[in-house]
Write a structure and sequence with these properties.
The protein has 290 residues and is of the alpha/beta class. The chain has two domains: 118 residues, ATPase, nucleotide binding domain (Nucleotidyltransferase, domain 5, 2-Layer Sandwich); 165 residues, 2-Layer Sandwich (Nucleotidyltransferase, domain 5). It contains 14 helices and ten strands. It has a five-stranded mixed β-sheet, with helices on both faces. A hairpin with a 3-residue loop joins strand 1 and strand 2. Helix 4 crosses helix 14 and helix 11 crosses helix 13.
């Protein structure tokens, strides 16, 4: 059996191919990022995912594409935890950007592929290989236009009392916010990026506020200016976007893209099904070659 995972820092989506068909129902676990998680954490979380526990010994090959898996050493951090759980599987770990490229793959077509989820990143695909010439700086220095970016902005405005009064009240009621609680979650507790990104849903549910529209627009503009316009000839290739932020704020993203002469291609909320289809096809082609 072949298992495929697409993981951000918040959650991971899993898809199973049993040699006959891709199972329609996806499985979900917490996301694993080598900057924040180790073997023990990965093993503990996987052991709580009942559907994965039920099939773990049947998996013979696992592809895992994850946020932060941008070097062999970081990939090995994740692979170590996965191998301890999927004991009969060949485990292949790579960057989530490569998974994003595969999910929108059109043979031989150059494109810019971006992720806008908990974090943000982009790569230029030349039709044969991906080139990440613009680095992802994570949630403290970068992640423009991402969930964690918007979480930082909205919490700062909340603490500075610069939100519209009604929005301030609704945010307090929805999350039970206090200054002390925010400081503890951001500065003392682990996974601050995931906590910050959790406020993106509030923005999505309150699109009618001018504050929200302006904030999202500014974040999208920063992302496009840095992570798309930074590639030479960006106007001449399609730009594909993957992730919940791109999906839920598609109208604003398209407005920003038009302003910067960016040709929007595919916008996908979750790449797992397309990614699995690509890998199943590739595995079939490799088998036929032998």
């Amino acid at each position: 059996m072949l298992l495929v995972a697409d993981s951000g820092s918040t959650k991971a989506d899993w898809k199973l191919f049993d040699g006959d068909k891709i199972h329609e129902k996806k499985m979900v676990s917490k996301g694993f990022n080598p900057f924040f998680h180790d073997k023990a954490f990965i093993l503990n979380e996987l052991n709580q995912a009942e559907r994965l526990v039920a099939i773990k010994d049947k998996i013979t090959k696992l592809y895992f594409f994850g946020a932060g898996c941008s070097s062999p050493d970081r990939c090995e951090v994740i692979a170590e935890g996965l191998r301890a759980f999927f004991v009969n599987a060949e485990v292949i770990v790579d960057h989530d950007m490569l998974g994003a490229v595969y999910s929108v793959y059109t043979e031989g077509e150059p494109s810019i592929v971006s992720i806008l989820g908990t974090g943000s990143n982009s790569t230029f695909y030349d039709g044969d290989a991906a080139h990440e010439n613009i680095p992802a700086l994570s949630y403290i220095l970068g992640d423009e236009g991402s969930g964690s970016y918007y979480g930082k902005k909205i919490l700062a405005s909340y603490l500075y009392n610069r939100l519209p009064p009604k929005m301030h009240r609704e945010l307090t009621e929805a999350y039970g916010l206090t200054k002390e609680g925010i400081f503890d979650r951001v500065y003392n507790q682990p996974h601050a990026n995931v906590y910050l990104a959790s406020f993106a849903k509030f923005l999505s549910d309150h699109k009618e506020y001018h504050y929200v529209k302006r904030l999202v627009y500014q974040g999208m503009l920063e992302f496009v200016d840095i992570h798309i316009c930074g590639y030479e000839g960006y106007q001449n290739v399609p730009a594909h976007f993957i992730g919940s932020i791109a999906y839920f704020f598609e109208d604003i993203l398209r407005e920003v893209a038009s302003r910067r002469q960016v040709k929007v291609g595919t916008i996908i909320k979750q790449p797992i099904h397309n990614l699995t289809e690509y890998l199943v096809k590739r595995e079939s082609e490799l088998s036929a070659a032998y």
